[in-house]
Structure formats: structure tokens, C-alpha cells
Write a structure and sequence with these properties.
The complex is a heterodimer of chains A (about 325) and B (about 260). Chain A is built from 14 helices and 2 strands. With about 325 residues, chain A is mostly helical. In chain A, strands 1-2 form a two-stranded antiparallel ribbon. In chain A, strand 1 and strand 2 form a beta hairpin. Chain A is globular, with a radius of gyration of 20 Å. In chain B, about 45% of the residues are buried. Chain B has a 6-stranded mixed sheet with strand order 6-9-10-3-11-12, with helices on both faces. In chain B, strands 2-1-4-5 form a 4-stranded antiparallel sheet, with helices on one face. A two-stranded antiparallel sheet of chain B has the order 7-8. Chain B is about 30% helix and about 25% strand. The longest helix of chain B has 15 residues, at about 185-200. Chain B has helices at about 50-60, 80-85, 105-110, 120-135, 150-165, 185-200, 210-215, 240-245; strands spanning about 15-20, 25-35, 40-45, 65-70, 75, 90, 115, 120, 170-175, 200-205, 220-225, 225-235. By secondary structure, chain B is α/β, with parallel strands linked by helices. Chain B has a domain at about 10-90 and about 170-245: P-loop containing nucleotide triphosphate hydrolases (Rossmann fold), CATH 3.40.50.300. Classes of the chains: A mainly alpha (about 325), B alpha/beta (about 260). Chains A and B meet through helix 9 and helix 10 of A and helix 2, strand 8 and helix 4 of B. Bound molecules: adenosine-5'-diphosphate (ADP) and magnesium ion (MG). Magnesium ion (MG) binds near residues 51, 52, 94 and 176 of chain B.
């Protein structure tokens, strides 16, 4: 999980560098720098402040959701319902706001909704021993269906001004959601590595039976993991509604694929016990920069989709292959 | 209830009337067992005799369907591994129960991490891991490699270190087939360790190997089909008879002891 002092060897500078280069986040960071360098040479606008800001803002929702996905993958699960969770949370929150419910209460109700979706996933997976793929595929269409039903497919608009600050406010030119996401990455990476109840997810994912044997409450860890993942989707949904000043049942479409791909690129896998916050961060950043490159170079939207789809398939196929090899 | 005379009067651990069912299978059938301090009890039996099930009931991995467990003369309920740890019952499982893709320190402290306000004390754990593994004279080079990349013997050292030296202080140490898959030299090393541990603790040693049992044990209990079919002091036991018991050949002297 983390580099510790060696038993016998002395850690030399050469070894530290070699060790670092074998780590996924470091590899991804170098790759991101390389692609950024290429884009800087090819297009004059890449380093423009406005462009960097739009890249940062564009990747924020994916990042928050992908962190939840990473944890679910670490505990040996999978959550396909994250995108639909964004839809239902956005709809519940904005409908409450539109009907005059106080802003903090509407936000809390939205977050509670997202955690309930996660809790439903966790319940069926731990109590009924059902496959996460099946369960979350079910909640994926259930949550989106509920969102559509509640709104008849229309946007939910006319939200109170005060609510919009959350997504549109800035500190020295950096939007609130970006600041929040950066803090979340730092705090969550510390908690995941240091805070025992979260860290036990690694044991649970690596070998659930043995985790049970050493006294770890496997069911509770998995259940909590799905609730956390749901909550992260909910947080992304609140920022999205606030920034776009609406709720919509089509929010978060294909989010599960991007979050999954980013987490997997970042080192998580389907066999559990693996994944890192910084790996996922660079996974999301990499996907965002590649997409930005397409936009800057005026490539056709179809090509963009084809390339994106290819990256997702290759990332996920690699993870599946690793699962079979483990 | 009859008991074998022993140099200690009160057993450290007793099971009375232990039963465990898996669906239609009776894995344990009315089992009575006593384990005394500073003694090695060898638990013998063929594959499927119920040895692992019995010790899992003591280690908190399973609970008995019927029967009572006494520890230090008091009735205890062991429903979770933590209950067993707290009593000082520590187990090295048959398949070692390691986490292959996690590093050595994580494996050593699995489920028994040092924490402060819920936060892992990694430095403290690494230092202790270093100390324990050095004492065991392992050839493990670094604490941060995946355990599955270690050799069989090294993995075994990690499992034993976790079962005996890390976390709660042991009073009863259970080793389920600790020599399975080991070479002769490594097995001898394990037997030597068992005898050393016996000076401080009570030991349950599960094995297939009669030579190893006779080499180390003070007493022998034989399981067959979930029942205890024989208990012998080592001085009274002979290998031919024990083999017969293990194979389920009825022994008319059985009920005498
Ligand atoms: N978790 C389980 N579920 C169902 N049956 C089990 C389980 N564990 C053990 N058994 C059965 O209980 C019996 C005793 O098994 P076990 O205690 O593993 O034997 P041993 O360790 O002596 O080889 C066997 O018939 C085995 O198939
Ligand atoms: Mg066994």
C-alpha cells in the first residue's frame, strides 16, 4: 500500500527512482506531462488560462465520482449506478428547491437520496449475496427511471440564486467545485491510506474470506463502501445542478464508464484490493486532456467518440484480463 | 465426564458437547476436548474428519451449533475472531489466510492494526514487523513487497509471525497443518518452534504426520467423522493404534479413557 523502510537493503537514490517509476500514479503523471507538452506545441491555446479552467471544471464531476468508484473497486465491488445516481439526486434536490424548501435542507435531502441509492446497492450485495454487476445495473435503470418519472423528462429550473453560488463561486479564479475536488483528493487519499476503517477495504477486496478470518467485518465494509460511492455521486450532482442552474434526468449519462475507465487506468481492478486516489486522479486528468486536445484541434466529434470509446474498452478489457490472471 | 490426568489440574480450554452441522453434514458430533497449559495437544484425523471445523469454532471463524466452550474455567462465547483474540486464542490457519497482493506489514497486522484515533500507526507497525521477522531469522528482504511474491517458507514465516507474535498476547496457539507444503528442514524448524512455544503457552497442533505428532505432542486426540474417537497421553499411545483410530476402525479400549 505504501513504501516502507527496507529490512535489509539500503534505499539508494537509484532504487527510489526505480521504485517511483514502477508506481502507476507516477507513470500516469509523466504521460500526462508528455501529452500536455505535445498539445502545447501543437495548439497555442492549450496553456491559456481559460482553457485550463475549462479542463479543470470539466473533469471535476468525473473526478469526484471516480473516487467513489475507486473505493468500490478496492473493496471488490463495482458500481454502474453512479451516473443515474447523479440524475436522481439532481432531480430530488432541484424539485425541493423549486418548491421553496430551504437550500441546506434540499442539499441534505439530495445527499441522503444518493446515499440511499448506495445503501440499496450495498444491501442487496451484502445481505442477499448478489453480484454487484447485476444489482447496480438494476439500480442504474431504476434511479434514472425514477428521475424521468419525477420530471416527465423536463429540466427543473428556476432555482434560488443562493444555491448557484456553490457551483459558480470562485476563489482567485478557481471555481468552488474544483477547489472542493482538490481538497477531496488530498483528504481522501490520506484517509484511504491511514484511516483504519477505510483502509480495511483493501483487506476485504484482496481476500474477503481471509478478512473475515482475521476479524474484519466484511459485510459492513462493503455496505459502507457503496454508501460512500453513492454519496460522492450525490456531491457531484449538487455541484452540477448548482453550476448549470438546473436538475435533469439525463445528467450523468455514461458517467459510470468514464469513472470506471479512470479508476482502472489509475491502477484499480475488478479483482479488488487495488486502487489509489492519485492513480484515479491522473486517470481522470489524462482522459480530460485527451478530450481537450480533440476540441482544441477541431477534430470531429465522431472521432472524439471513437477514440474515447477505444480508450474505455482497452482500459476495461485490460482490467478484465488482469482479473483472469490473478 | 472423564478426563485424562495431567500435570495441570484445570484445562486452559475445554469444549463440551460441541456440535457443528453444515446442511446435512455433521462436521462435529458431540466433541469433548481439553487443552492444558504448557502442553501440546496433537489433533489427528483423516481429511474431512472435522479438525479445521473444530479449531475454527475456537478461533471465532465459526460458531458451534451446540455445546459449550470454557476458557480458564469460565464459560465463554466466541462468536467472532476478535472474541478469540481477546482471550488470547491465536490461530495459524491451514492455508495461512494471507492477503497475497498486500505487503508484509499489512498482512502481519491484518485485523489487529495499531491505531490512534482510528489512524494507522504505520511506523510503529513497521518497527514491530521488522523486529519480529528479524527474530524469526527470515530471509524476507523488504516489508513492502507483495506477500505473494515471497517463497513458500517466507509466507509461512509471515503467517506464524502474525499468529503468534503480533497483536494480542497469546495464551493458546492453534496451528492447523503448519507443516503442510513445507520441506523436511522447514518442518523440523516448525516443530522446534512448537516445543519452544509450549514453554509459555498451550498449543493445539493439527497434523497428518504421525511422526511429527509423536515427536512433539504431550497428548493426542483423534477425530474421525466429526467424533473424538480416541484420546491418549503420548506415553500410552502407539502409532498402529492411532492409525486405526484415524481410519475409523473401532477400538474397544476407546471408551476406557
Ligand atoms: N464451510 C463449510 N461448508 C460446508 N461444509 C463444510 C464446511 N467446512 C467444512 N465442511 C465439511 O465438514 C467436514 C469437516 O471438514 P474439515 O473440518 O475441513 O476437516 P479436516 O480439517 O479434518 O480435513 C467435511 O465433510 C467438510 O466437507
Ligand atoms: Mg483441515
Amino acid at each position: 500500500m505504501e513504501t516502507v523502510s527496507t529490512l535489509a537493503d539500503q534505499a539508494t537514490v537509484g532504487k527510489i527512482i526505480k521504485n517511483g517509476l514502477s508506481k502507476r500514479p507516477v507513470q500516469l503523471m509523466l504521460l500526462t506531462l508528455l501529452i500536455s507538452g505535445i498539445l502545447t506545441m501543437l495548439t497555442p491555446n492549450f496553456l491559456a488560462q481559460s482553457n485550463l479552467k475549462s479542463v479543470a471544471m470539466g473533469m471535476t464531476y468525473d473526478l469526484i465520482v471516480a473516487l467513489g468508484m475507486t473505493y468500490v473497486l478496492i473493496i471488490g465491488g463495482l458500481d454502474l449506478s453512479v451516473g443515474s445516481n447523479i440524475a436522481i439526486t439532481s432531480v430530488v434536490t432541484t424539485l425541493l428547491l423549486k418548491n421553496g424548501v430551504a437550500i441546506p435542507i434540499a442539499i441534505l435531502a439530495g445527499l441522503a437520496t444518493s446515499m440511499i441509492v448506495g445503501g440499496i446497492n450495498g444491501f442487496f450485495i451484502t445481505k442477499c449475496k448478489m453480484n454487484p454487476f447485476i444489482v447496480t445495473l438494476g439500480t442504474m435503470s431504476l434511479a434514472r427511471g425514477a428521475a424521468m418519472t419525477l420530471t416527465s423528462g423536463y429540466f427543473v429550473t428556476s432555482l434560488p440564486k443562493g444555491f448557484l453560488i456553490l457551483g459558480r463561486g470562485e476563489i482567485s479564479g478557481i471555481p468552488f467545485p474544483v477547489i472542493f475536488a482538490i481538497i477531496l483528493v488530498i483528504v481522501f487519499s490520506i484517509l484511504l491510506n491511514r484511516f483504519a476503517p477505510l483502509n480495511r477495504g483493501f483487506y476485504v477486496g484482496a481476500h474477503p474470506n481471509n478478512a473475515e478470518l482475521v476479524g474484519i467485518n466484511v459485510g459492513r465494509t462493503i455496505f459502507t463502501g457503496f454508501v460512500i460511492c453513492g454519496l460522492f455521486s450525490g456531491i457531484a450532482a449538487i455541484f452540477m445542478c448548482s453550476r448549470l442552474a438546473m436538475g435533469y434526468a439525463q445528467f450523468g449519462l455514461e458517467m459510470e464508464l468514464r469513472a470506471l475507465a479512470a479508476a482502472v487506468i489509475g491502477g484499480a481492478g475488478f479483482s479488488g484490493g487495488r486502487g489509489s486516489v492519485w492513480g484515479t486522479f491522473f486517470g481522470v486528468l489524462l482522459l480530460a486532456i485527451i478530450n481537450n486536445g480533440f476540441i482544441l484541434m477541431d477534430a470531429s466529434i465522431y472521432w472524439q467518440k471513437v477514440v474515447n470509446g477505444t480508450i474505455l474498452i482497452v482500459a476495461i478489457a485490460t482490467a478484465v484480463r488482469n482479473l483472469n490472471n490473478d | 465426564m472423564q478426563s485424562i490426568e495431567s500435570n495441570n489440574h484445570q484445562p486452559l480450554l475445554s469444549i463440551r458437547g460441541g456440535c457443528k452441522y453444515f446442511g446435512g453434514i455433521t462436521a462435529l458430533d458431540n466433541v469433548d476436548i481439553d487443552v492444558y497449559n504448557h502442553e501440546i495437544l496433537a489433533l489427528l484425523g483423516d481429511n474431512g474428519a472435522g479438525k479445521s471445523t473444530l479449531i475454527k469454532a475456537v478461533s471465532g471463524a465459526h460458531t458451534l451449533d451446540e455445546g459449550d466452550i470454557f476458557f480458564d474455567g469460565k464459560k465463554v462465547s466466541i462468536n467472532r475472531p476478535e472474541d478469540a483474540y481477546k482471550l488470547g486464542i491465536k490461530t495459524v490457519y491451514q492455508d495461512m489466510a494471507l492477503f497475497g497482493i498486500l505487503d508484509v506489514t499489512s498482512n502481519l497486522f491484518a485485523g489487529a492494526e495499531y491505531t490512534h484515533w482510528g489512524f494507522l500507526q504505520k511506523k510503529k507497525m513497521n518497527q514491530e514487523a521488522f523486529g519480529v521477522l528479524s527474530n524469526l531469522k527470515t530471509t524476507i528482504k523488504t516489508l513492502h513487497q507483495e506477500v505473494r511474491s515471497l517463497s513458500g517458507g517466507q509466507q509461512h514465516a509471515v503467517a506464524i509471525a502474525r499468529g503468534v507474535y503480533i497483536g494480542y498476547d497469546p495464551r493458546l496457539i492453534i496451528m492447523d497443518e503448519p507443516t503442510a507444503g513445507l520441506g523436511v528442514k522447514q518442518s523440523r524448524e516448525v516443530l522446534r518452534l512448537l516445543k519452544e512455544l509450549k514453554r509459555e503457552f498451550a498449543i493445539i497442533f493439527i497434523t497428518h504426520n504421525l511422526d511429527y505428532a509423536f515427536d512433539t505432542a504431550d497428548r493426542i486426540a483423534v477425530l474421525c467423522g466429526g467424533r473424538v474417537v480416541g484420546k491418549r497421553l503420548i506415553q500410552e499411545a502407539n502409532q498402529t493404534e492411532i492409525v486405526k483410530l484415524m481410519m475409523g476402525v473401532e477400538d474397544k479400549n476407546n471408551q476406557k479413557i
